[in-house]
Automatic annotation (TrEMBL):
Cofactors demanded by this protein: FAD
Gene3D superfamilies, alphabetized: Acyl-CoA dehydrogenase/oxidase, N-terminal domain (1.10.540.10), Butyryl-CoA Dehydrogenase, subunit A, domain 2 (2.40.110.10), Butyryl-CoA Dehydrogenase, subunit A, domain 3 (1.20.140.10)
Organism ancestry: Bacteria, Bacillati, Actinomycetota, Actinomycetes, Kitasatosporales
GO molecular function: acyl-CoA dehydrogenase activity; flavin adenine dinucleotide binding
Residue stretches making up the Acyl-CoA dehydrogenase/oxidase N-terminal domain: 11-122
Listed name of the protein: Alkylation response protein AidB-like acyl-CoA dehydrogenase
Length: 401
């Protein structure tokens, strides 16, 4: 392990978990990641290994069979995994968000029903807000649930579900008007439905279709899909928390921890890019010396290392803030924004260091170059992060009078 991105003050348990995950990443993920990614193949063996390590239940409380670890432990594990292959961290991320939402907002029955099987990875979570016509503007959601007796009938189309095909439980945000008169603010008339389904594609249950994988430039291996609800019937007791009208807040709570997670992914990918760059720079010779001895390349390495270090520190700070029970939307927004921008820059510098070989599919940096941009978009774009950060700063620094 190198000197960068160390975390002070970890417990023995945290250090042990991280060492195990790092070993798994080095042995089981890095050697196969690029090949699987080029084939866009789902990493089934890796996922089985993650189950054995207990990673699907890392933050699920012990009473439900999980390891009951903190957001910091989780984020540091994600950082390690993304260092190996970002797509694998995507497989865990939506699962983690849904488990977190159940833990925070679910009814007792919902927690008991889902969390033990989520802890083992038997039930796997996906979450769905985005639609073909919206992503940033969640308040514009058009998918709708209408109550009929003991059920809700859901209609609408969803877009960009990470793990849409492989998951068996999807938390879907829909509009529900019941109990909310016309004119109610959009975010107060939204409800999260917990939809159980079979994994796979096509019609996975009556009224629910997962059409197929969306072809992507990167972030391959993990399935990203649409979801079509056409008269889908969901029992009323599968409204998250049992009460309609709370979905927007529940989802935003989930996305907030998800942002720390995306920041951690940015840190992991940037670390890997740095490792690849610093190694290649010492092997490639031009004009009679290793390119690492040219000051221009040394400066690049200096900038890259500084960015890796800064992003890691902000990500750790955001996770610790949440773990201490404090509001962390400002820190999570800043960490996500900075880590994803720095990740893209560090990856680009590592790519440049590789010269023409960076453009060859034989070199790992080619894969990282196609993966880094996803972090600029997922869990809220840079513009949306800046809106959150700006508003919060104005709240904190409001002048009197
Ligand atoms: C690979 C992948 C996986 C994803 N997985 C999931 C998932 O699992 N679940 C899910 O629900 N969604 C998922 N998403 C969707 C993702 O959250 C959205 O793509 C993202 O929120 C941006 O929304 P959009 O694509 O509709 O862009 P838009 O909202 O249309 O934005 C387009 C551009 O306009 C800018 N913009 C928008 N509004 C403003 C404003 N007010 N001020 C300034 N600029 C603005 C944006 O920053 C962006 O640059 C995924 C997306 C991708 C690419």
């Amino acid at each position: 392990m190198g000197r960068l991105a160390q975390t002070d003050g970890l417990t023995d348990v945290q250090r042990e978990i991280l060492a195990t995950v790092r070993e798994f990443v080095d042995k089981e993920i890095i050697p196969v990641a690029t090949e699987l990614e080029h084939r866009d193949e789902y990493p089934t063996r890796i996922v089985e290994g993650l189950k054995e390590l207990g990673l699907f239940g890392l933050m699920i409380p012990e009473e439900y069979g999980g390891l009951g670890e903190s957001l910091l432990t989780y984020a540091l594990c994600v950082e390690e995994i993304a260092r190996g292959w970002m797509s694998v961290s995507g497989i865990i991320n939506t699962h983690f968000i849904v488990a977190y939402m159940l833990k925070q907002h679910g009814t007792q029955e919902q927690r008991e029903h889902f969390l033990p099987r989520m802890a083992t990875g038997e039930v796997r979570g996906a979450f769905s807000m985005s639609e073909p016509g919206l992503g940033s503007d969640v308040s514009a959601i058009t998918s709708k649930g209408v109550r009929e007796g003991d059920e809700y009938v859901l209609n609408g189309q969803k877009m960009w579900l990470t793990n849409g095909g492989s998951s068996t439980l999807v938390a879907v945000l829909c509009r529900t008007d019941e109990g909310h008169p016309e004119g109610t603010a959009p975010h107060k008339s939204m409800t999260t439905f917990l939809i159980e389904k079979e994994p796979g594609f096509g019609q996975v249950k009556p009224g629910l279709t997962i059409p197929g994988k969306i072809e992507k430039m990167g972030y391959k291996g993990v399935d990203t899909t649409e979801l079509i609800m056409d008269g889908l019937r969901v029992p009323a007791d599968r409204v998250l928390g049992g009460t309609t009208g709370r979905g927007f807040y529940q989802m935003m709570d989930g996305v907030e921890v998800g942002r720390v997670n995306v920041a951690a992914r940015g840190c992991g990918v940037a670390q890997r890019a740095f490792e690849l760059g610093v190694s290649y720079a010492q092997q490639r010779h031009t004009f009679g010396k290793a390119i690492a001895q040219h000051q221009a390349i040394q400066f690049k390495l200096a900038e890259m290392g500084t960015k890796v270090e800064a992003a890691h520190a902000m990500m750790v700070n955001a996770a610790r803030k949440k773990d201490s029970g404090q509001r962390n939307d400002l820190e999570a927004g800043m960490a996500k924004y900075l880590a994803s921008e720095y990740c893209k820059e560090v990856v680009e510098d590592a790519f440049r260091i590789h010269g023409g070989y960076g453009f060859s599919k034989e070199y790992e940096i080619e894969r990282l170059y196609r993966e880094a941009p996803m972090l600029l978009i997922g869990e809220g774009t840079a513009e949306i992060q800046k809106m959150i950060i700006g508003r919060r700063l104005l709240e904190e620094y409001r002048i009197q009078g």
